């Protein structure tokens, strides 16, 4: 038995999987991203999600022989003997698991959740944004993913930041009037009649910069507004460029996309796919909700199991049954 974990910024998912690719138990918890939540969040979320998955699978913690932990900012494959992995060790131990583990790239896990093809591309646009080229089941090239201060172009933060800038420019007269302004003020609970600019500035600087990502959906809500439409178009172009930066002449596809921007905003996903096709991309374009199936794939591969199409389909099918019990 193995346990595979996708530790994301908003939620953490864990699954118990056997050597045939059958997912036996699923667990979920809150944010397990050490970048946004700190090491304490890793311990709590990892412990809770893994414990729930083990209980759901009706197995004993001692039956778990290994683990794969997909986490933001990680490079595949790192050993489990470094002090930076202490929160992971503690989180697994809280669930009664003392097996060796490997830390994997969350973007590679996302890619592996969408295809069994060893060569292709992955593009994620959630709070952050990055693209990878995958060859032989491993990350061969990466573009962006450099964080909100240096990059993440086209991400939820990037869009939300531009929404906030457009509203400030509207309020102080430097920019055009935009329907984004009342939408942002309403979301932040600011009365438009009571010093809205000053209160907006106070609200933004009182919070973590990355929290500007919560304003991103407003750019799509106000899609007919010229300012909002320009932001959405720029985000689509930025993501297409990031993907193009990792293109290899001998890797045509497939393309796996994930993250809230690409998953929930059809306009951006369609624009990126169109650019991908126009520049010679081939193969299917798949969108995935998370990377837990990919983490299961990586857990099996690291144990020497060949994950062919049949095993991939077994992972996906059994995981879907756990997510939606009784639907089949």
From TrEMBL:
Domain of life: Bacteria
Keyword Cytoplasm: no
Keywords, in A-Z order: Kinase, Transferase
Single GO MF descriptor: kinase activity
Domain ATPase BadF/BadG/BcrA/BcrD type: 5-299
Position of the signal peptide: none
Name used for this protein in its record: N-acetylglucosamine kinase
InterPro entries, alphabetized: ATPase_BadF, ATPase_NBD, Euk-type_GlcNAc_Kinase
Keyword GTP-binding in record: no
Alphabetical list of PANTHER family matching this protein: N-ACETYL-D-GLUCOSAMINE KINASE
Coiled-coil region: none
């Amino acid at each position: 038995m193995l346990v595979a974990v996708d530790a994301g910024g908003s939620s953490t998912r864990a699954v118990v999987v056997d050597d045939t690719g059958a997912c036996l138990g699923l667990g979920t918890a809150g944010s397990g991203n050490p970048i946004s939540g700190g090491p304490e969040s890793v311990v709590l979320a990892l412990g809770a999600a893994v414990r729930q998955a083990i209980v759901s699978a009706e197995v004993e913690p001692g039956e778990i022989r290994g683990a794969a932990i997909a986490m933001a900012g990680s490079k595949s494959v790192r050993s489990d003997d470094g002090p930076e992995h202490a929160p992971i060790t503690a989180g697994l131990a809280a669930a009664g698991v003392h097996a060796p583990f490997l830390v994997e790239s969350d973007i590679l896990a996302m890619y592996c959740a969408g295809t069994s093809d060893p060569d292709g591309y992955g593009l994620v646009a959630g709070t952050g944004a990055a693209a990878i080229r995958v060859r032989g089941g491993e990350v061969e090239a990466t573009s962006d993913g450099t964080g909100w201060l240096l990059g993440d172009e086209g991400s939820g933060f990037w869009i939300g930041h531009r929404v906030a800038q457009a509203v400030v420019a509207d309020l102080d007269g430097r920019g055009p009037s935009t329907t984004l302004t009342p939408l942002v003020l309403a979301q932040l609970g600011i009365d438009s009649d009571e010093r809205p600019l000053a209160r907006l500035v106070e609200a933004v600087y009182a919070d973590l910069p990355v929290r500007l990502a919560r304003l991103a959906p407003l750019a799509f809500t106000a899609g007919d507004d010229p300012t909002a439409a320009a932001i959405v178009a720029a985000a689509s172009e930025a993501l297409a460029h990031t993907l193009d930066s990792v293109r290899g002449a001998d890797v045509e596809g497939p393309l796996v996309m994930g993250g809230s921007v690409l998953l929930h905003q059809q306009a951006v996903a369609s624009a990126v796919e169109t650019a991908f096709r126009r520049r010679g991309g081939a193969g299917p374009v798949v969108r995935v909700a998370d990377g837990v199936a990919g983490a299961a794939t990586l857990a099996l591969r690291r144990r020497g199991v060949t994950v062919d199409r049949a095993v991939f389909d077994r992972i996906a099918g059994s995981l879907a049954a756990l997510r939606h019990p009784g639907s089949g």
